[in-house]
Write a structure and sequence with these properties.
With about 325 residues, the protein is an alpha/beta fold. Helix 7 links the parallel strand 6 and strand 7.
């Protein structure tokens, strides 16, 4: 038997065909498919294990005692009128339905502005259970880091101290019985947003932005962040949408026109309303008399009242 015949015999012995009791040779396509399926299975297994490991470190969501639904108002960027909107939306929620109890939590540790806008000063009293009692004005229960520090004192804290302060504002406040707790979030997509989203069940998030391109970039990041942590985004608010000259009534889109509407279409979200750039909105908040309270018949106040209606319409049914 020559060399070629020996090679053929060895191959036949190693890979018998038919009823010889061994494995049949696998064609190239089948081998490739098997390898691909095996790799996919390993990837899925690793992904599941990674998710399990990560989930072990996440805190379990626990509702705030006495609070039925939490609505967060957020923006990816500072300076877009988020706190002004949060204050007026909280007041509009109460104005639209006098049977509802509304609270307002200022989660902006570094730049609390709710005390000034709601015309509140002083330190919260403590209950027998050592919980802080919110300060109240215009029928809205309010809590802010601004009540716990001097008005001009900066908060020079690292991340862990900020997270501890947020935890106290969430868990060590006697809110009584609230139908809605409006939370004014700090700008950005950092520790506070993640901690709040992971610690408490949030009924919905509202993203606020001006139509300016730079603001829209960050607003999109904010919306995507809430989606990643499984917080439903109720919609977007276009703030400072148009300026009307008080003398000639000419309208100017200072920050651009319909930028937030275009972003909402891209993200598949709703526009909850437009708020004009009006001097009365700024003046009334600076004086501690927000426009929804001080000028309820104005176009600006009506815009906030309509937005509050849209928010309630999109909220899930509150827990029994």
């Amino acid at each position: 038997m020559g060399a070629p015949a020996w090679r053929w015999a060895l191959r036949a012995a190693r890979f018998p065909v038919g009823g010889g009791g061994g494995r049949a040779p696998v064609c190239g396509a089948a081998a490739s498919f098997a390898g691909s399926a095996s790799s996919s299975f390993r990837d899925d297994s690793l992904r599941d294990k990674r998710a399990q490991i990560l989930s072990r470190g996440l805190p379990k969501q626990k509702p705030i005692e006495g609070v039925k639904q939490v609505v967060v108002l957020a923006s990816g960027k500072g300076g877009v009128g988020k706190s002004t909107t949060a204050v007026n939306v909280a007041l509009a929620l109460a104005a639209n339905d006098s049977t509802k109890e509304v609270g307002l939590l200022d989660a902006d540790i570094y730049g609390p502005s709710i005390p000034k806008m709601m015309n509140l000063k002083g330190n919260p009293e403590l209950t027998p259970k050592n919980l802080m009692r919110p300060l109240k004005n215009y029928g809205i229960a309010c809590m802010s880091m601004g009540f716990l520090i001097e008005e001009t004192a900066p908060v020079v804290w690292r991340g862990l101290m900020v997270m501890s302060a947020v935890e106290k504002l969430l868990r060590q406040v006697d809110w009584g019985q609230l139908d809605y707790l409006v939370m004014d979030m700090p700008p950005g997509t950092g520790d506070v947003q993640l901690s709040v989203s992971q610690n408490i069940p949030i009924a919905g998030a509202v993203i606020i932005s001006t139509p300016q391109d730079v603001a829209l970039l960050d607003a999109r990041k904010g919306a995507e962040m809430f989606r990643k942590v499984h917080v439903p985004v109720l919609g977007l608010i276009q703030n400072m949408s148009v300026f009307q000259c008080p003398k000639c009534k000419h309208e100017t889109h200072i920050f651009g026109a319909d930028g937030v509407r275009d972003l909402a279409k891209t993200l598949g979200l709703d526009i909850l309303g437009d708020i004009p750039l009006h001097v009365n909105i700024r003046e009334t908040c600076d004086s501690g008399q927000p426009v929804v309270i001080s000028q309820p018949q104005s176009d600006a106040a009506k815009a906030y009242l309509k937005i509050a209606e849209e928010i309630v319409r999109r909220l899930p049914a509150p827990p029994a």
